[in-house]
Amino acid sequence: FLSTPVALEISVVKVEPTAPLDKVCLLGCGITTGYGAAVKTAKVEEGSTVAVFGLGGVGLSVIQGAKACGAKRIIGVDINPGKFPMATKFGATEFVNPNDHPSTPLQQVLVDLTDGGVDYSFECIGNIGLMRAALECTHKGWGVSTIIGVAGAGQEISTRPFQLVTGRTWKGSAFGGFKGRSELPGLVEKYTKGELDIDSYVTHRFPVEEINRAFEVMHEGTW
């Protein structure tokens, strides 16, 4: 392992010196990406209904952002029910497990659950089938679906044009729409003021010598 990392100047951000680096380092991607997708890219409105596809670190951050915006209903969508308690802690109000609805398209499940569709949806996995479902579960006339997950190289997304000409909007989000050099310090400040939860994302700690075990635990997907 290297003792001195080398990085481009544009990738380095000066932050509050008292901020714990073992926590704020998580703002380098996942938390910022999900939180910003809700707050900056989609601009979730107070009282709205939100669906979040995928309850990993990014999805949990979307939930945290949606809650901060005042969303009334936040629906977590995941095939692993073990993730639901953590999502509840971040602000999810209800859950849908696609495996519980084998004969009904997922988008229809969500449309029925919300009496017409959600106001905002977020795909946090990188599954092109779910990207389509996330769009089509939003409400006609004003629904906004934001793609965050990175699909495999060469894959393409599709939907019927009718889904868009009836008023839905499809967006993409990179780094949550934040400008790293100028805006990341603001997120660090939010954390130090207790306005942004980072601590809850840290579920395990390993010394460098156990890095392989750390990857194993991550792949197990357990808390």
Topology:
Layout: H1 21-24, H2 30-41, E1 49-53, H3 57-68, E2 73-77, H4 84-90, E3 94-96, H5 106-113, E4 120-123, H6 128-136, E5 144-147, H7 161-165, E6 169-172, H8 180-192, H9 211-220
Helix pairs in contact: 2-3
InterPro entries: ADH-like_C (IPR013149), NAD(P)-bd_dom_sf (IPR036291)
Protein name: Alcohol dehydrogenase-like C-terminal domain-containing protein
Cofactor: Zn(2+)
In short:
The protein is built from nine helices and six strands.
Written description of the protein model:
The chain has helices spanning 21-24, 30-41, 57-68, 84-90, 106-113, 128-136, 161-165, 180-192, 211-220, and strands at residues 49-53, 73-77, 94-96, 120-123, 144-147, 169-172. It has a domain at 27-177: Rossmann fold (3-Layer(aba) Sandwich), CATH 3.40.50.720. With 223 residues, it is α/β, with parallel strands linked by helices. Helices cover 36% and strands 11% of the residues. It has a six-stranded parallel β-sheet with strand order 3-2-1-4-5-6, sandwiched between helices. α2 packs parallel to α3 (57-68).
Task: Supply database-style keywords.
223 residues, alpha/beta, Rossmann fold, 6-stranded parallel β-sheet, 9 helices, globular, zinc ion binding, ADH-like_C, Alcohol dehydrogenase-like C-terminal domain-containing protein
